[in-house]
Each structure stands twice: as structure tokens, then as C-alpha cells.
Amino acid sequence: MSNTKSWGNYPKVAASRVTISETERLKALLNEVDDVISYGNGRSYGDSALNDNVVCIKPKNYFLNFDEEKGLLHIQAGALLSDILEFSVPRGWFLKVSPGTKLITVGGAIASDIHGKNHHVEGCFSESVAMLSLLLPSGEIVSCSNTENVDLFRATCGGMGLTGVIVDAKIYLKKIRSRYIDQKTIKTKNLKETFEAFEKYKDQPYSVAWIDCLAKKGRMGRSLLMVGDFSDDGQLDFVPKKKLNIPFYFPSFVLNTLSVKLFNAFYYGKVKAGVSEQRVDFDTFFYPLDSINNWNRIYGKNGFTQYQFILPKKNSFEGLEEILKTIANSGKGSFLSVLKLYGKENENYLSFPIEGYSLALDFKIEKGLFPLLDQLDEIVINKGGRIYLAKDARVSKATFEKGYPRIEVFRKLRRKYNMHEKFNSIQSKRLGI
Amino acid sequence: MKSSTQYNQNALESKNSYILIIGAKSDIAKAVARKYAEEGFNLYLAARNASALDEFASDIKIRLGCKVACLELDILDYTSHQIFYDNLKEKPLGVISAVGYLGDQEKAENDFAETSKQIATNFTGIVSFFNIIAADFEERKSGFICGISSVAGDRGRKSNFIYGAAKAALSTYLSGLRNRLYESGVHVITVKPGFVATKMTEGLDLPKKLTGTPQQVANDIYKAQKNKKNVVYTIWIWRWIMLAIRYIPEWQFKKMSI
Ligand SMILES: Cc1cc2nc3c(=O)[nH]c(=O)nc-3n(C[C@H](O)[C@H](O)[C@H](O)COP(=O)(O)OP(=O)(O)OC[C@H]3O[C@@H](n4cnc5c(N)ncnc54)[C@H](O)[C@@H]3O)c2cc1C
Ligand SMILES: NC(=O)c1ccc[n+]([C@@H]2O[C@H](COP(=O)([O-])OP(=O)(O)OC[C@H]3O[C@@H](n4cnc5c(N)ncnc54)[C@H](OP(=O)(O)O)[C@@H]3O)[C@@H](O)[C@H]2O)c1
């Protein structure tokens, strides 16, 4: 038994943990245990990778083939996206879709069908997956894609590990000519300006905004919108950088409203008014937090949660106004809040993105937080939105079901392959998936 | 006949040459393989059921861009050793053995087949193989031979002294081999790991501070080979632990349980 956590350090679970690199041993293990969940690199925030039994796939991280003509990489599911980039960037290739951290596994990227700053252009991670191999409860390994075992593919991409263990996958990379990004930062004064800026810069392949969630009244919704694309300068060589580390858990009072306000004011205040331009390394652009090891410790030992929801575009402005007001009034600080305009929804049963605006906010776990989040849930559901399972540790079954109308198709498939008897997480039990 | 260009004196410096690793499925061997590949060498990976190494080999080939060949070798099949070596088209610059078998001490005490397997895997088989390598390297006057022995060979303890005795024999063999090959410019390295977190020790409750990772062991081996060290303890603290243990007088040691 060992203490097993995800990125939010909440909840903590005493789990029996097995680390596996060989497929044969993995099969043998699945024969022995019921009720198990795959664990990648624990970068999900909530309880989707936690259960009494977890199987760690990270050592299963070999590169199996790289077709340099097509940019097609065949790779085992435990490999980190950072392993891929270390290999691919000097050769002029980048991930088609990448989240805000490169420290996640390929399996985790598929299971959460993650999205990046270019969702409005490239869609989710699954859209770059040519095929994946899935270990089913029966012990059989099947290959799934958009044309083969389509139902398993649609269920597994975004399926939070609940369809089986992803063993390996073939993913398409995209060609780049530089490791640098030409970035524009647009400073907006309120939510209306922020929305207008997103629309104006829609043609930029990458875009995301940092939003000040504590600003009130006329300044509500003020943001820094960052947009950009890879430069064209042919510079691909790696320049190593020093990492910072948070060596211990901060006492939880450190992160009070005042310090969050100061932080937001600092970031916002630092940037010139209007539009400014920068040239930054891809690490700075895509993975600003990866340069600080263990940054999650600033939230203290009790941990934190990330609340991420998305609203259909037509209701986004109203919904966000209401939600930002509720948060600002509650005085509960969110250190990092990220706003983004998403593109079209895909056909996977449980993938998160729909066309509209999504907001992600970090909250430390404290008294009064969950009632606030329940209040936000209600607004989200009323506006036709949903909550992101990769970040969640507390949403109710009813809220979840209203947000994901295809859940019945998913449940049926789970029963058909006996997945419900083998693969479960604390989250799936809470939500009756 | 061996051409002189193939056995160039500077060969040790020239990357792109092959390193032969036997017992290549071991976690330590894999880490060593990766280290040498990172340093620009090509690899021969020899093991029983070598096809199990295919995925590992493709990983190294793709990421590090070197050549890797997986070869079948059973260290207990003595007669196959010469044929194995003769079949290598390009002879290696150096040979590293990670072959070993911890076995079960209690079983070995009551079952000579087990004792015999421990001795043959940890000692006799490796001697058979290294004799062949030594003859070739001596003739070409270059190369290195590296054997992974164990601190268990430094002193016999009741918990694993059959394994320990075989490792002691291996250490003695390597010491003699070093002495013999010195004049030919062939270097011999004896590696003595303490605790290492590998498949062999999975499930054992090892003290964290004294336990190395396969990567640490691999780095130590590479450094020792490059700097022509003779005997290397890994991780380093084991040199001092074993120094202390060797100093305990036998009358006292025999009463102890460590
Ligand atoms: C700083 C930070 C920024 C982030 N930014 C984004 C972002 O921009 N966009 C986004 O979409 N997400 C983002 N995330 C969330 C993160 O990308 C996802 O939670 C991802 O799934 C984590 O992958 P992991 O390898 O750490 O998996 P884990 O957290 O260990 O597991 C996550 C889920 O994947 C399943 N899983 C893992 N491996 C396998 C496998 N081999 N087979 C089957 N199921 C498996 C688990 O069962 C679990 O349900 C961010 C997280 C952090 C910490
Ligand atoms: N781990 C430790 O704490 C530790 C400490 C001191 C010394 N060592 C030594 O370090 C070396 C590597 O050990 P490890 O920890 O990585 O353990 P390991 O995985 O058990 O390595 C031993 C290797 O020897 C191979 N082998 C056994 N019999 C063989 C045979 N007849 N022919 C060919 N190969 C054979 C095994 O191959 P198969 O996979 O086919 O069985 C295995 O790959 C060993 O010599 C060990 O004694 C380890």
C-alpha cells in the first residue's frame, strides 16, 4: 500500500500500486486483480487515476518506430510527451496537440483526449492518433482507430482509462521550422474586450488568455490574451534551462486572497497596454509551469482542485459574467485562471471540448469551497455546459450526466466488454460510469 | 586473418564501434546499453530469448540513432560461446557482462542442482565466455572487459553465500585477467554493486539511501571504463561499507546476522 495522489494532492488514496513495463506481466496482473485503474504520470488533478489498485504504465515508454516521411510515431503509452519533444524538436517535428504541461504520458493524453491552445484549429489529441492498441478485460489486445473498432476508439479517447489499458499508439506529428514562437500579447480591459480579441485573432493557430478572476465591476474579465505561431527561422537546437523547485508544501495561509490579488495584478500590470510582441521558446509558450518543479505544493498539504468547465458559444458571455461575479463575490482566490475559445466538438463519447468558451480555475481545498463549486455547477448546467473530468474530484453524478449526453452509449459499451467489472476509478464509481 | 585497420589502437576512442553486452535483459544492462548508445557507440545485445529485447532495441535505435543487434546467448551453453563470438562480423571494442543469478540460498543448501546453477551462471559460464574474448583482445592489443560482480562476493554471509562465493570467484578471476592483459593494453573492470533497484531485487525492502538506480550504476560503469578504474563500487558508499565489513574479525563476524 502506498499513498497515491494526483496533481491536486486531493484526494489521497492508500492504493496498492504495481509498476509494469512488460505486456505479458500486465496481462497476468489483470488476471489477478479486479477493479483497477491505469495511472500515467498523475498529472490529472482529481480522482480519475485513483483507486484501491492502480497500475503504473510509465516504464512502458519505448519508441517503436518513426516514419520520417509521414511524421508518424509509434510509441508505447507510458512515454512522456517531453520524451517525444526531446526527440522530435531537433528533427523539426512537434506534437499536433499538446496540453499546458509536457509531463504527461501518451496514455494519459489519449484517455483524457486532451486539448491544447490550438483546439480551434487541430481539435483534440485523438485527432492526431492514427491507431491505438487497447488491452481489454479479456486479455486480448485490439487495435482501434477511426476505421477499425470504431466504437472502442471513440470510447477510449476521452474514456478516462475505463475501457482498458492503452498499450501503445501511432501518432502524427507536425512539421516545424523553429523551436521559437512569435507571440502577441493583447491586454484587454474587460470581458467584452477579451471576447472580441479572441474573435479577432481566431486565425492564429495558438491562443489562450490568462484572466484575472478577482477583478470586479468594470474591470471584470480583464485578461492577457496570448496568441502566436511557430517562427520560421530554422533554429531547432536545444538550449537547456535551469529549473526552479518548490521544496516543500507551503503552509496553506500563504495563498490567501491578497497574495492572489497581488499575483494577478503583477502579471497583468507587467504587460504593456494594447498589443505587444515577443519571441519565446516553445517551453515558455506552452509549458510555463513545467519550469517550476512541484509547483502544486504552493497550495499546501490539503491540496487543491481545478475547476474547468466549458459553455456553448452562444451562452458563453452571459454564463461567464455570472460565474466571474459569483467567484469575485466569494473572495476565493484562483491563482491561475485560463480562458480559451474552443473549436468544434468531436465524436468521442466523453471528450470534453464543445464549441465555446472554457475557463479553468485553481482553488485550494478549504471550507466553503465545495458549496461554491456546486453553485457554479448549477450555472454551468443551466447554460448547457459541462465539467472536465481530467480536473475533477467532486462533481455530482447528476451534474456530470447532464453535461455528457452520450454517457449511456459509453455505459453500454462498458457492459458489453465487461469493462465495468475490471476498470474503475474513484471518479467512475462516484459518477456511476 | 585479422586486418590491422580493424584492430586499430585508437579504436577505444572511436565511437560507432560496437559494445557487446551480455545478460542484456537485466535492468542494469539496459541502462548500460542506453548510456553507451548515448555516447555514440553501437550495440550487440546478447541474452536468452533475445527477441524480448526487440522493442528496447528499436527504442534505442530510433532515439539515439545507433545500430543495435539482438543476439541469442545462453551463458550455460558453454560450447556455443566460441561460435557466438566467431559469428560477430565486426568484433566489439568492449564486452560487459550483467549475467547473474541470485537464486535461493536455502534451496541451494538442500539441492545441489540449485547450487550448481548459481555457480555456473555467476562464475563458470562467464569464465568460459570471457576466456574467448580475452584471447582475441590480447591478440589485437586493445579493448576492455567489464564484469558485474557483487559486494556479496567480498564476504560470505549466511543469507546468500553460494551466490556470494560464485561472485567472489568471479572477482578473483577478473583480478587475474586484469593482471594477464595489462601488458597487452586490454583493460579489465570489476563492478561491485551494492543494492540496486531492479527486477532481481523487486519486492525486497531495500534501504533507500544505500540503493542505487540502474542509471547510476550505468554512469559509474561508463566513467570507470573511460578512466581505466580497476574495481568500482556502486553506488560509491558501498566501498566504505564493505571496507568496514571486511574489517570485522571473523570470530565476531560469525556471530552476526547482517
Ligand atoms: C500544469 C497542467 C496543465 C494542464 N493543461 C492541460 C491542457 O491544457 N489541456 C488538457 O486537456 N489537459 C491539461 N492538463 C491535464 C492533463 O493533461 C490530463 O489530466 C492528462 O490526462 C494527464 O496525463 P497523465 O499521464 O499524467 O495521466 P494520469 O493523470 O495518471 O491519468 C489520467 C487519466 O488517464 C488514464 N490513463 C493514463 N494512462 C493510461 C493508459 N495507458 N491506458 C488507459 N488509461 C490511462 C487514467 O486512468 C486517468 O483516467 C494539465 C495538467 C497539468 C498538471
Ligand atoms: N540488483 C542488485 O541489487 C545487484 C546487486 C549486486 C550485483 N548485482 C548483479 O548485477 C547484475 C545484473 O543484475 P540485475 O539486478 O539487473 O538482475 P537480473 O535482471 O536478474 O539480471 C541478471 C541477468 O542475467 C541473465 N541470465 C541469467 N542466467 C542466464 C543464462 N543462463 N544465460 C544468459 N543470461 C542469463 C538474466 O537473463 P534472463 O532475463 O533471461 O533471466 C538477467 O538478464 C547481475 O550479475 C547481478 O548479480 C545486482
Structure description:
The complex is a heterodimer of chains A (433) and B (258). By secondary structure, chain A is an alpha+beta fold. Chain A has two domains: 63-176, 2-Layer Sandwich (Uridine Diphospho-n-acetylenolpyruvylglucosamine Reductase, domain 3), CATH 3.30.465.10; 180-403, Alpha-Beta Plaits (2-Layer Sandwich), CATH 3.30.70.2520. Chain A is 28% helix and 26% strand. Chain A is built from 14 helices and 20 strands. An eight-stranded antiparallel β-sheet of chain A has the order 15-11-13-12-18-19-17-20. In chain A, strands 5, 6, 7, 8, 9 and 10 form a six-stranded antiparallel β-sheet that branches. Chain A has a four-stranded mixed β-sheet with strand order 1-2-4-3, with no helix packed on it. The model of chain A has no long low-confidence stretch (mean pLDDT 93). By secondary structure, chain B is of the alpha/beta class. Chain B has one domain (4-253): NAD(P)-binding Rossmann-like Domain (Rossmann fold, 3-Layer(aba) Sandwich). Chain B contains nine helices and nine strands. A seven-stranded parallel β-sheet of chain B has the order 3-2-1-4-5-6-9, sandwiched between helices. Chain B is globular, with a radius of gyration of 18 Å. The complex binds flavin-adenine dinucleotide (FAD) and NADP nicotinamide-adenine-dinucleotide phosphate. Flavin-adenine dinucleotide is lined by residues 6-7, 37-44, 48-49, 57, 77, 99-101, 104-105, 107-108, 111-112, 114-116, 160-161, 165-166, 289, 390, 425 of chain A.
